[in-house]
Design brief:
By secondary structure, the protein is mainly α. It is built from 13 helices and no strands.
Length: 296
């Protein structure tokens, strides 16, 4: 008995130690990024990265916040696009996934093939740009940041796997009671599929929040550029200034120009809000990923 107890304790300690190491592997890089963003460029160049700031300074953040108005506009656009786009994408994705998951729908194979085909092949950047800008006339509008990601095939198949696990008897019972298809979906399927909606909704939110490509293609109005594209432009400006000063032999201390510290500060500003939001959806996220993984 004592030997078995010691064996269980040793096993528990090993498992806990492994998870502690995994947790540190996730947390330490974040601490390094925050510490680097609060350091001076000269301190980073001389002593490298550490868990504590090197010569504590807000120099990188001061450089980024030189135009607070533009940063405010970019945050506003990104938050709006993420909220509206995620809800619209989740609605369209769930309805399409529900249709192709219903085997009693005659065209479910046809629509499944269409979604699979778009997953494997795309029209290309040039045709997409021409369609969005010339035919849909969405250039320099907020819809240009929302509609291209409204339905992502991988999200459709992910949610289809969730809906395929729904018991057919539940839908048939609702039909016997006289419920229409819309009522069945919104009143019965949606409430019992919260983990699936939370999982796909989180993926949609990450897609919209991290996007900078659509702003680069379709947006010229400074008030409509996304946060990620604005931070991308700041980083390009810093690199351009550093390269110009080196090639033209300008006598300015490059240590005063934020480079790595600005890059870390940009990471904090870009990823910080989503890091605070993710824990609230974590339980649904885990349940959603494992819902369709086990077959009875």
């Amino acid at each position: 008995m004592i030997g078995d107890k010691n064996h269980r304790m040793a096993k528990t300690l090993v498992i806990n130690g492994i998870f502690i190491l995994l947790s540190l592997a996730c947390v330490v890089p974040l601490l390094l990024i925050v510490a680097a963003s609060l350091s001076t460029e000269a301190g980073i160049n001389l002593r490298g990265y550490s868990l504590l700031p090197q010569d504590f300074s807000f120099q990188a953040y001061k450089y980024i916040f030189q135009s607070p108005k533009q940063l405010f506009y970019s945050y506003q656009i990104t938050i709006t696009v993420t909220l509206v786009g995620s809800l619209a994408s989740l609605l369209c994705t769930s309805m399409l996934a529900y249709v192709i998951a219903r085997r009693d729908f005659p065209l479910h194979r046809f629509f499944s093939f269409l979604v699979l085909f778009t997953l494997l092949f795309s029209g290309g950047m040039v045709p997409t740009y021409i369609m969005v800008s010339r035919y849909y006339h969405l250039k320099d509008t907020i819809l240009a940041l929302i509609l291209p990601y409204i339905i992502i095939p991988w999200h459709v198949f992910l949610m289809k796997g969730f809906f395929s696990e729904m018991p057919v008897s539940l839908i048939e019972a609702a039909k016997i009671d006289g419920a229409m298809e819309g009522i069945i979906f919104f009143k019965i399927i949606v409430p019992i599929s919260k983990p699936a909606f939370a999982t796909v909704g989180l993926f949609c939110a990450f897609t919209y929040w991290n996007d900078w490509w659509l702003s680069l293609l379709y947006i010229d109005n400074p008030r409509l550029i996304s946060l990620q594209f604005y931070l991308y432009r700041i980083m390009n400006t810093i690199q351009f200034l550093a390269t110009s000063m080196q090639t033209r032999s300008i006598t300015i201390d490059l240590g005063d120009l934020p480079g790595e510290t600005a890059r870390m500060a940009l990471c904090v500003l870009a990823a910080g809000p989503m890091l605070f939001i993710f824990p609230f959806f974590q339980k649904y996220f885990v349940r959603g990923l494992t819902m369709g993984a086990i077959k009875e």
